[in-house]
Amino acid sequence: MEKWVCVVCGYVYDEEVGDPDSGIAAGTKFADIPDNWVCPLCGVGKDQFEKQ
Fold this sequence. Notes:
- The protein is an all-beta fold.
- 0% of the residues lie in helices and 19% in strands.
- Strands 2-1-3 form a 3-stranded antiparallel beta sheet, with no helix packed on it.
C-alpha cells in the first residue's frame, strides 16, 4: 500500500488507513478515491498530492 502527501499542508493519505471521516474505506487506493475528494486538512484537490 502507498502513501500520498499533500504538498500544501503535509497531510498524508495512507491507503491502509483510508479517510474514514470522508467516507473513504481503509484499503482504498489513492487512484480509486473520487476525483471530487479534497484534503481533509486544507481542502485542496487530489492533484496537489504526491506519492511518498
